[in-house]
Design brief:
Two copies of one chain form a homodimer.
Chain A (H helix, E strand, L loop, with lengths): L1 H12 L6 E6 L2 E7 L12 H9 L8 E5 L5 H10 L3 E4 L9 H6 L3 E4 L3 H13 L1 H7 L4
Parallel strand pairs in A: 3-4, 4-5
Antiparallel strand pairs in A: 1-2, 1-3
């Protein structure tokens, strides 16, 4: 989760939305990513899709764990379901409840670490950038 | 739908998976895309995500229609749900049943045109490339 938080901070440092993610297989990080809506003007590069993108074509996703600083939205949760990711570990779901039940209904184990560091980072960002945040979660 | 089929053919012509998609708003195509797993070695560039990527940051997705030659998988259906797309029109769902109920449960109108041209294109591709297709739908 530390690596995912580092990705979120990297995004914040480049003017973007502070959500980071890493994909882990066999105990090793095989893909890192962060939200790039602002940096690349790209609405589909959420943190999790960016991590999956950067991991490349790995074949089977069995026994992979997707870490994200925030509970995945339906888009990224849909990726976890479709790709067959086994487990999703998130930093928090207080600032955005996301699609936990949808993932669990499809057999994914979801762990919410409820980390104050992740909550504070998102609360500050959302308070300072409400419109950008609404755009990112499709609520404009 | 003709533009989406053209995108699918473009993908096939460049060695890729023949699924195409366009995003329409106010009667105009604002984004075109096709599956780029092979061409860009990118597991998250499904046809629909590529069309959304190419449409850019459009703000609200209310009153948009997403056309795809094939019923969206959970990943792309998740994008439609999260972004708030109003309607999804597909060429077929015979070769892949996809996530129709998931989209309808979230208020999206789904229309299946059941087009022989789309069915034949995918049947031929899947028969000739079974492993690549299994990779694309996360069944390796």
């Amino acid at each position: 989760m530390k690596a995912a938080i580092d990705e979120a901070k990297k995004s914040l440092g480049t003017g973007g939305i502070p959500i980071g993610s890493v994909l882990v297989k066999g105990g090793e990080i095989i893909g890192r990513g962060h939200n790039k809506r602002v940096q690349e003007n790209n609405p589909v590069m959420h943190a999790e899709t960016d991590a999956l993108h950067n991991a490349g074509r790995i074949g089977s996703y069995r026994n992979t764990v997707l870490y994200s600083t925030l509970m995945p939205c339906y888009f990224c949760a849909g990726a976890a379901v479709q790709f067959g990711i086994s487990k999703v570990v998130v930093g928090e779901s207080k600032t955005f409840t996301g699609a936990r039940k949808f993932m669990e209904d499809h057999g994914i184990t979801v762990v919410d670490l409820n980390l104050p560091e992740c909550i504070e980072m998102m609360e500050k960002f959302i308070n300072e950038n409400p419109k950008l945040w609404q755009e990112d979660i499709g609520e404009l």
